[in-house]
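Field: sequence (string)
Field: structure_tokens (string)

Example rows 1 and 2, in order.
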Amino acid sequence: MINEYRTVYQEAYDEIIIEKSRFIGYVKPITSEEEAIEFIEKIKTKHKDATHNVPAYVIGKNNEIQRYSDDGEPTGTAGIPVLEVIKKENLNNVAIVVTRYFGGIKLGVGGLVRAYTKGARIALDAGKIITKILYKEVIVKVDYTLLGKLQNDILQAGYILKGIEYHEIVEFSVYVKIDDVEKFRSHIIEWTNARCEIIEKENIYLTELDGKIIYD
């Protein structure tokens, strides 16, 4: 699993008119090439009367899969510009389709590149660029006498407190960045004088938007 990667938050679209041509930028977060192809086909079916439906997508930990098509536009004027927008934003697992309805005015090579770049850009803005960060959920069990102190220590150190359950003992559920788990263990042992039980649970990606964690 990737410790951290950038993608888009949601499937979305936006549109713009450039020299009477209508450009509609669609974007979707994806997890496989099959999902990307399905998304592209959906947009092509929706806009089967469009002049062009230009797709590009990037998938994989190191962007191993990169695909694009000019869909009938002059070579290098459409698909590559869309792909470059994805790559310049350092995004993973993203598919974009820019649909064009020709408005009667030819844009030229430079104009097409700028137009498809803009179409991809407005799609990303609509989808909202996010960072997916890998965390581990850690359960900390302590006696009630440590409740207030430990809660304060966890929050002061900047860890994400998912919740607290009250049983015969107190159970803290904490999200810890995957690289910080050992440091967190050390902190807990220090803060409780080793009067604790620490249980590591599953890994989970949390979503960061504009520097804040949001919950889906």
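Row 2 begins here:
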Amino acid sequence: MTKPVINVAEAETHSGGSGAHFAHSMTELSLPLGARQIGANVTRIPPGKAAFPFHHHHGNEEHFFILGGVGVLRLGKEVHEVKPQDYIVNLPGGPESAHQLINTGEEDLVFLAISTSIVPEVVGYPDSAKTGVRPASLDDDDFRFLMSDSAKNTRAYWDGEDGRKVEGIIAARRR
């Protein structure tokens, strides 16, 4: 059995982000210990950045405990100041539950992030009008199916379903 304890200082950390507005480093805590249903990491956001785009989860719940630094939480149409010792709960839902932490201070905004690990997962991104689907495998964290929200409902459920395969199977069984 894997040792059920990990020290943040000894855990693997990776960095991410894109462009001038997004940057973070994450120290993974739960996966190295074999967790399957709950994810946990310590995330650091440098001053003047957000870790991730404004987003909402249709299936997963995320909790954040602010360890250091200051910033704001965008939640739906509201903005809330956050500081050390604040605990945040982000429930699954639609755009009204979209959230984003932004570092407005002079030092790193550091928080413990805990979430359910339900996959497949559907994530909406209201600022960029796109939706992402993460498959059932947690092995490839970078794999997502992303589509523009303008592509939603451009095809009906039955479009392209002409039934020839069904007819062929039925005909073959009747012979």
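free_text_note (row 2): The longest strand covers residues 38-45.
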